[in-house]
Design goal:
The chain has 145 residues and is mostly helical. The protein folds into 2 domains: 35 residues; 103 residues, no CATH class. It contains 9 helices and no strands. Helix 5 packs across helix 8.
């Protein structure tokens, strides 16, 4: 059995964290009261993630795919137009002909950063649909459709 006093002390300590993402995670995941994510948007950690310009979409921990995934996990507010350039770089990679010759499977988890950040819109929605119905150079059909 968990001691309620210990659990409450841990929750209170996490809610007092200087990191907005930790406070948001505790409010949303532990207390069931997510509230505003605006303080997450303005955090130093988020500013560092967004300020990073990676040469490749999948550059470990710095590429747009990783940045959008991290922002989603941190509770960054969905639909921010500032993230659309990241979305476009990812989609340009996914939908380039060379991607289908190099990649053998497509998974839902690959789209998680785009979907979680509300970045799917405009040209992204039909492009994700196209991605799901793509046939690879090997002739293997993946996805629906």
């Amino acid at each position: 059995m968990h001691n309620a006093a210990v659990t409450n002390a841990i929750v209170e300590a996490l809610l007092a964290s200087a990191e907005p993402a930790i406070r948001w995670k505790v409010r949303s995941s532990v207390l069931g009261k997510p509230g505003s994510r605006e303080d997450v948007r303005e955090s130093a950690l988020v500013r560092r993630l967004i300020a990073t310009e990676a040469p490749a979409v999948y550059a470990k921990w710095q590429g747009p795919h990783w940045v959008l995934g991290a922002l989603a996990d941190l509770g960054y507010p969905a639909g921010d137009e500032a993230l659309f350039p990241y979305r476009e770089r990812i989609l340009d990679t996914w939908l380039h002909e060379s991607y289908y010759r190099d990649v053998t499977i497509a998974t839902k988890s690959a789209a998680y950063p785009l979907l979680s950040n509300g970045a799917v819109g405009g040209r992204a929605a039909p492009r994700l649909g196209r991605l799901g119905r793509r046939e690879y150079a090997s002739g293997k059909r993946v996805g629906h459709g």
